[in-house]
């Protein structure tokens, strides 16, 4: 029996242009099952969002500023002053969809020949009343890094960190590799070897951005070695020395 995670993989691989036979081999199902899992698109009624009345304003604003890119936070503040009450995520999704044609190269998948995987991890730097964590994303091929400091490891925070990492790198990889991140994977090998049960919120997010969720094999830290090495650098060569320096300064003061 095909499960939700397999259906999600079929849809994502189909979006990447993979053949039915290739998809069947990667997911471990028959070609007929792949055919049944590929969505049959129908016309849907358009959903009117709170952002709708401001779309023309935003479009004109972005076009008039081209080639200068206006940050989403600035645009959000402008329409907020005009009475907009929706969330900034809606605005970012809309702005991403109307980028000028001349800018399309910026949204092509990064590292065209090798842009297969981004590796993600949390670094827990401080616990207690004032927790501090670092979200770390590393491109597998180029070893380019994105890091963001946050005060919690909730799903909404993880998703927003992913979005900003995609913006920073200029695209979305084919797959994102995680360690045993509890907010991502709920149960390992639930439906068979290598077929895991993922957090539905992460599955929906992966579907929206068309990337596959992958997890490291247990006790195989080397699978995500590039992130692990950068994690040690952040903790031992950046955070710990900085904290020590600040504590010393307080003592002197």
List the helices and strands and how they pair.
Blueprint: H1 4-15, H2 20-27, H3 31-37, H4 55-65, H5 72-81, H6 88-97, E1 117-126, E2 132-139, E3 145-150, H7 155-169, E4 175-178, E5 185-187, E6 197-198, H8 200-209, E7 212-215, H9 225-252
Helix pairs in contact: 1-2, 2-3, 5-6
GO biological process, one term: DNA integration
Organism: Rickettsia amblyommatis (strain GAT-30V)
InterPro entries: Integrase_cat-core (IPR001584), RNaseH-like_sf (IPR012337), RNaseH_sf (IPR036397)
Helix/strand order: HHHHHHEEEHEEEHEH
Helix content percent band: 40-55%
**CA-based gyration radius:** 21 Å
CATH class descriptor of the largest domain: Alpha Beta
CATH superfamily of the largest domain: Ribonuclease H-like superfamily/Ribonuclease H
Protein name: Transposase
GO biological process, one term: DNA integration
Pfam families: rve
GO molecular function, one term: nucleic acid binding
């Amino acid at each position: 029996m095909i499960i939700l995670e397999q259906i999600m993989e079929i849809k994502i691989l189909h979006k990447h242009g993979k053949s039915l036979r290739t998809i069947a081999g990667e997911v471990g199902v028959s070609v007929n099952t792949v055919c049944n899992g590929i969505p049959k698109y129908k016309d849907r009624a358009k959903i009117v969002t709170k952002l709708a009345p401001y779309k023309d304003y935003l479009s004109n604003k972005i076009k008039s500023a081209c080639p200068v890119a206006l940050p989403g936070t600035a645009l959000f503040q402008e329409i907020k002053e005009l009475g907009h009450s929706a969330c900034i995520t809606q605005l970012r999704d809309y702005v991403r969809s109307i980028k000028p044609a001349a800018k399309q190269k910026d949204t092509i998948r990064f590292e065209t020949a090798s842009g297969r995987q981004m590796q993600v991890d949390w670094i827990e730097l401080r616990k207690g009343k004032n927790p501090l964590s670092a979200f770390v994303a590393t491109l597998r091929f180029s070893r380019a890094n994105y890091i963001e400091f946050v005060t919690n490891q909730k799903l909404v925070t993880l998703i927003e960190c992913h979005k900003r990492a995609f913006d920073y790198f200029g695209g979305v990889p084919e797959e994102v590799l995680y360690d045993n991140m509890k907010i991502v994977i709920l149960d390992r090998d639930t439906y068979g070897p290598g077929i895991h049960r993922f957090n539905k919120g992460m599955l929906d997010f992966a579907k929206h951005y068309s990337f596959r969720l992958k997890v490291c094999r247990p006790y195989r830290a080397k699978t995500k070695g590039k992130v692990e090495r950068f994690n040690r650098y952040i903790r031992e060569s950046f955070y710990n020395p900085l904290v020590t320096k600040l504590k010393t300064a307080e003592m002197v003061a």
